[in-house]
Each structure stands twice: as structure tokens, then as C-alpha cells.
Write a structure and sequence with these properties.
The chain contains 2 helices and 6 strands; from the N terminus they run H-E-E-E-E-H-E-E. Strand 2 and strand 3 form a beta hairpin. This is DUF4124 domain-containing protein.
């Protein structure tokens, strides 16, 4: 059991973790907004990643200001809501892409 836990932790240490993830839907269209932390357990550095059918992009980043990515993500979610997308939070997601992406 300890070996399995250590293996899982070492695998996760090479991945970015998304603490705040939102899925927004409008009919069949789906978009995601994620706050991605480069160093699990630390709130900075961070990125706000936006994904839709045409691809992904980083909208905002912060290296030192704790709370910046979270507030930008919240404001963007509010904007998507006004555009007619229904957004809901997904709890404690872990990104599947390595940091090098």
C-alpha cells in the first residue's frame, strides 16, 4: 500500500494540478476554465487555462500574487454566464497534461 501511494505521489509531482475547474455548457458546446498550479500545494505560480472545441489557451498567469488567478477565473466565469453558458464547479480535479505543455 505504501509503495502504491509513493508511486502515485511521484507521478502527480510531474503534473500540474488544477484546484479550481469549471465546466460551462451551452447546448452541445462545452468549455472549461481551470486554475492550474505549477507547484502542487502552492498558490503561485498559476495559470488560468481556457479550453473550448478549437483548443486551449492560457488567459492569465501569476508568479507572485496569490489570489490573482482565482479572481480572474471567477470574473471570466461570470462573463461566460452572461453570454448564456451554464457553468458549474468541478471539485479538486487533477490535470492530465504534463507541465511541459
Amino acid at each position: 500500500m505504501k509503495v502504491m501511494l509513493l508511486l502515485m505521489l511521484s507521478i502527480l509531482s510531474f503534473q500540474a494540478s488544477a484546484q479550481d475547474m469549471y465546466v460551462c455548457k451551452d447546448g452541445s458546446a462545452e468549455r472549461t476554465v481551470e486554475v492550474v498550479y505549477s507547484q502542487p500545494g502552492n498558490k503561485v505560480p498559476c495559470d488560468v487555462k481556457y479550453t473550448k472545441a478549437s483548443g486551449s489557451q492560457v488567459l492569465w498567469s501569476a508568479n507572485h500574487e496569490v489570489g490573482y488567478c482565482e479572481s480572474k477565473a471567477q470574473a471570466f466565469i461570470a462573463k461566460l454566464d452572461t453570454l448564456g453558458l451554464a457553468c458549474s464547479k468541478v471539485n479538486n480535479a487533477v490535470a492530465t497534461q504534463p507541465l511541459s505543455e
